[in-house]
């Protein structure tokens, strides 16, 4: 999910931003660096330089070129699991006592999520300091030959600026898209490189075979610099090996982390696929520690090297990344009127959030969701280990105590699994939705309803955590959501793709919200023969959808809605943002 880069009309921004509201001003400035993705069109921002050459010029202007090598970088490419692998690696090295920088993409709510120093998002003040410094200096030098950088290039330069200025001991850098031509590939001499799971994504840019995709990812290999990867399809592995051989890169394949190494602790990121990412992170960190002469100290109590150092375990058990297999218990309904214990007259609303948007990740997302809801079924009491306590606190900050009281009053509830879905039009829902449905079905998980909504975030605005949320987007064209809905109904009812289904009948009333009974009634056995699509709905606004779900559980104390939000990180970010309010 990276920003597409193309011709940019850079507005003139004030050299000295007004003090008030300057964070929003910075967001405005950043947004001017985005342009709309155009399907199949390779972008170029003009000027006389190629993309990576231009990156080098930007770095020179900011006096960063030399200093980047001092960042002792871990550079990670791959189709899926980059962010998770980088986050585990950062947490491990921080726990080992190093000052860390972490650059990931995309962000969910606020652009500052992309830049962490010592495990924490950079503060607004520091962000503004570095942001305007880079912005103004690049602006001064911008001309026809050297336009301002497109968004992702700017963010990459900014990450280097932040990490150099903050004097981190290690910078963990996630590739934006591909590898060879990625803005982050200005890194000449990383300490170690990682390639996460490879699969089919961004085929329009990277090529339509796994071999071509692997070739782009292997573009981050540097002569003789060690590299690690996870088990890959053989076509991809061959390409990685070939490239490694050419550059004399010692490339090792790392097996998923063996759970027994965790000594009873749990990985802080859920889902079986995270053992793959964690295994890779462990090897990257171990190699980094060896290359920087720090491994001996850490492993001196364990000469055989059989056990993971305690600091590794702490990192693996605490690394945090939102929107990847995240469970958020929405307690707003309970907090609403729970000043007395008897106030717990509401059903449960639980969000399962995962930003999967490629076929392989849709499958791992479905596996995770199935096991998370089934794990829950077996629990005698409400308090579930799969529920993120931090999120409970966040969502219901002021009423945490009341919440704890609510949890003791658990009774038998009727669980309904609901899908809340959107995906970008460049993705192929004909692959994503059947993968999701079939993987869930194979472990006995069935959705009673699906809701298709447009995301609130648009691709032409970088937002902050405090940006306003549009309350109403009724004029938005919903034809994409209606086509997702038709596809959904065909998928779950096994209807031939060429059969026409009518989605013109909508619910009457404000913003076409369905009546609450829509969620209670199980209609999955009814085929949509009469033109009524009984298992799904399109709702035009996400805020109204959340409010509607909350109203449903408030009205019906016996209901437990388990809502899987997936298909787009933008959608996941928007839902998280709404739940926090
Ligand atoms: N090893 C993996 N194999 C398959 N799918 C994975 C793996 N790791 C993560 N995923 C899926 O990909 C989603 C994104 O995970 P993560 O942020 O770690 O990957 P990423 O490569 O940074 O993705 P993006 O392309 O969005 O930057 C997760 O929510 C999960 O659904
Ligand atoms: Mg991606
Ligand atoms: Mg990522």
TrEMBL record:
Q: How is the cofactor bound?
A: A monovalent cation.
A single GO BP annotation from the record? one-carbon metabolic process
Q: Does the keyword Nucleotide-binding apply?
A: yes
Domain of life of the native organism: Eukaryota
Q: Where in the cell is it found?
A: Cytoplasm; Mitochondrion inner membrane; Mitochondrion matrix
Q: Which UniProt keywords apply?
A: ATP-binding, Cytoplasm, Ligase, Magnesium, Membrane, Metal-binding, Mitochondrion, Mitochondrion inner membrane, Nucleotide-binding, One-carbon metabolism
Q: Name one GO cellular component term.
A: cytosol
Pathway given in the UniProt record: Cofactor biosynthesis; tetrahydrofolylpolyglutamate biosynthesis
Known EC number(s)? 6.3.2.17
Catalysed reactions listed for this entry: (6S)-5,6,7,8-tetrahydrofolyl-(gamma-L-Glu)(n) + L-glutamate + ATP = (6S)-5,6,7,8-tetrahydrofolyl-(gamma-L-Glu)(n+1) + ADP + phosphate + H(+)
What cofactor does this protein call for?
a monovalent cation
Q: Which InterPro entries match?
A: Folylpolyglutamate_synth, Folylpolyglutamate_synth_CS, Folylpolyglutamate_synth_euk, Mur-like_cat_sf, Mur_ligase_C_dom_sf
**What EC class is this?**
ligase
Q: Where does ATP bind?
A: 324, 354
Q: Where does Mg(2+) bind?
A: 105, 174, 202
> What GO molecular function terms would the record report?
ATP binding; metal ion binding; tetrahydrofolylpolyglutamate synthase activity
The residues forming the signal peptide are: none
Q: Does the keyword Ligase apply?
A: yes
Protein task: Catalyzes conversion of folates to polyglutamate derivatives allowing concentration of folate compounds in the cell and the intracellular retention of these cofactors, which are important substrates for most of the folate-dependent enzymes that are involved in one-carbon transfer reactions involved in purine, pyrimidine and amino acid synthesis.
Which protein family is named in the record? Belongs to the folylpolyglutamate synthase family.
Q: What is this protein called?
A: Folylpolyglutamate synthase
Organism for this UniProt entry? Jatropha curcas
């Amino acid at each position: 999910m990276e920003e597409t880069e193309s011709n940019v009309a850079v507005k003139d921004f004030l050299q000295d931003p007004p003090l008030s509201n300057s964070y929003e001003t910075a967001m405005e400035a950043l947004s001017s660096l985005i342009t709309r993705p155009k399907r199949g069109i390779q972008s170029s921002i003009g000027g006389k330089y190629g993309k990576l050459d231009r990156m080098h010029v930007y770095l020179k202007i900011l006096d960063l070129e030399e200093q980047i090598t001092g960042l002792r970088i871990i550079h990670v490419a791959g189709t899926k699991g980059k962010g998770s692998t980088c986050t585990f690696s950062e947490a491990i090295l921080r726990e080992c006592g190093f000052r860390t920088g972490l650059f990931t993409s995309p962000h969910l709510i606020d652009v500052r999520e992309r830049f962490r120093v010592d495990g924490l998002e950079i503060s607004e003040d520091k962000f503004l300091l570095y942001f305007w410094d880079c912005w103004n200096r690049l602006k001064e030098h911008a001309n026809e030959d050297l336009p301002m950088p497109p968004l992702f290039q700017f963010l990459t330069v900014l990450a280097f600026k932040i990490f150099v200025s903050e004097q981190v001991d290690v910078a963990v850098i996630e590739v934006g898209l591909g590898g060879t031509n990625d803005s982050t590939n200005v890194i000449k001499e990383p300490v170690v490189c990682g390639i996460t799971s490879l699969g089919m994504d961004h085929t329009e840019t990277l090529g339509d075979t796994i071999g071509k995709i692997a070739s782009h990812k292997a573009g981050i290999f540097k002569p003789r610099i060690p590299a690690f990867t996870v088990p890959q399809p053989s076509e991809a592995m061959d390409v990685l090996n070939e490239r490694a051989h050419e550059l004399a890169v010692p490339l090792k394949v790392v097996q998923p982390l063996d759970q027994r190494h965790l000594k009873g602790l749990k990985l802080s990121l859920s889902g079986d696929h995270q053992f793959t990412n964690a295994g890779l992170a462990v090897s990257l960190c171990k190699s980094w520690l060896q290359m920087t002469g720090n491994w001996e100290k850490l492993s001196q109590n364990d000469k055989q090297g059989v056990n993971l150092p305690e600091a590794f375990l702490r990192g693996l058990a605490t690394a945090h990344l939102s929107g990847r297999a995240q469970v958020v218990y929405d307690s707003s309904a309970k907090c609403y009127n729970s000043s007395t214990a008897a106030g717990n007259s509401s059903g449960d609303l639980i969000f399962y959030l995962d930003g999967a948007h490629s076929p392989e990740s849709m499958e791992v997302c479905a596996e995770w969701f199935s096991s998370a809801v089934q794990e829950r079924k077996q629990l005698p009491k409400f308090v579930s280990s799969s529920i993120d306590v931090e999120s409970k606190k966040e969502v219901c900050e002021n009423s945490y105590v009341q919440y704890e009281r609510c949890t003791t009053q658990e009774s038998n509830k009727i669980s309904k699994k609901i899908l809340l879905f959107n995906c970008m039009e460049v993705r192929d829902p004909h692959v994503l939705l059947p993968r999701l449905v079939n993987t869930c079905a194979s472990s006995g998980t069935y959705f009673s309803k699906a809701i298709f909504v447009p995301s609130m975030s648009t691709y032409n605005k970088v937002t902050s955590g405090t940006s306003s949320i549009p309350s109403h987007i009724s004029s938005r064209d919903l034809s994409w959501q209606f086509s997702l809905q038709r596809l959904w109904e065909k998928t779950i009812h096994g209807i031939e793709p060429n059969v026409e289904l009518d989605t013109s009948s909508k619910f009457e009333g404000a913003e076409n919200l369905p009546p609450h009974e829509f969620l209670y009634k199980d209609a999955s056995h009814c085929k949509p023969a009469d033109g009524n699509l009984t298992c799904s709905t399109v709702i035009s606004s996400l805020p109204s959808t959340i409010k509607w779900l909350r109203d449903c559980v408030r009205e019906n104390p016996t209901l437990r809605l388990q809502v899987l939000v997936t298909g787009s990180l933008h959608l996941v970010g928007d839902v998280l943002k709404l739940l926090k309010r």
